[in-house]
Amino acid sequence: MVPGQKYDFKEGATLLVDKPLEWTSFDVVNKIRYALKKALGVRKIKVGHAGTLDPLATGLLIICTGKFTKKIETYQSQYKVYDGSIRLGATTPSYDAETAVNEIFPLDNITPEMIASNVPHFVGEIEQIPPMFSAIKVDGQPLYKKARKGQEVKVKSRKVTIHDFKITNIRFPDLDFEVKCSKGTYIRSLAHDFGQKLDNGAYLTKLRRTQIGEHTLKDAWQLDDLITHIQENYHPEVTE
To answer: Which of 106, 115, 204, 226 has the most CB atoms in a 10 Å sphere around its CB?
Structure first.
């Protein structure tokens, strides 16, 4: 469903939203839920998202309402496409720019040819360890909470599939990339592991999700536009 379309939110709707920078996926859900409850004059309405984006990531978020929340698992299982940037020569504990650089590496020996030859190692089925700063739960608590307390936890690797991975531009020490991957892939871990494979360091500086299955970012609402649409077009006395 695309901007300008009418939705039966209470019965069920699927919304494509461009998640803003520094918003959590739950922030977006809560904003939409609040707007719907107020506009429709209801005390409760089901709203959920199909696949978390980190606060520093932007792009496509699938939001489901009403009975369509039963479709969330199906959307989550579909492939994802991202573009973004990796910075070579340093690492961070979170594998992205959320935390400060904790180690710096010399870049004198890194060449475009080395970067290109590194890419094939990250295509196909690979083993990946999720970042410590992630929402995966260990002993009932998200890893990021343990990480922020300085606790070290051994995290098991998991198999993920990278369908396609390419470096689209080299702006040394930054690399622009595009990746198509399976559910459960951590792009932050991909960036970190890419640096390790070069015997160097790397972390994610930018990430934008452009596609989930056949759903693309070009069909997504800007969040403010969606909220305005809800406020102006839906009222308690009107059944869409």
So the answer is: 204
pLDDT digits (tens, 9 = 90+) for 152-164: 666 788 999 999 9
Q: How far is CA 85 from CA 34, 97, 190, 206, in A?
A: 34, 11, 11, 5
CA atoms of 63 and 50, how far apart (whole Å): 6
- Does residue 112 share a domain with residue 159? yes
Residue 2 resides in a domain: no
What is the C-alpha to C-alpha distance for residues 124 and 167, in angstroms, rounded to an integer? 16
State the CATH number of the domain containing residue 157.
3.30.2350.10
Known catalytic residues are: 54
Beta strands in 92-173 (DSSP E): 103-104, 124-128, 137-138, 141-142, 158-171
User: Identity (one letter) of the amino acid at 159?
Assistant: K
Distances in whole angstroms, Cα of residue 220 to Cα of each of 5, 20, 28, 152, 176:
12, 12, 13, 39, 23
CA distance 30 to 6: 21
Q: Spell out the residues 6+ positions from residue 177 whose beta carbon is closer than 8 angstroms to its own.
A: 83, 84, 85, 86, 165, 166, 167, 168
CA geometry: angle 223, 169, 180, nearest 5 deg: 55
What pLDDT, on a 0 to 100 scale, did the predictor assign at position 131? 81
58-115 pLDDT, tens digit each: 999 999 999 999 999 999 999 999 999 999 999 999 999 999 999 999 999 999 999 9
Q: How far apart are CA 35 and CA 188, in angstroms?
A: 32
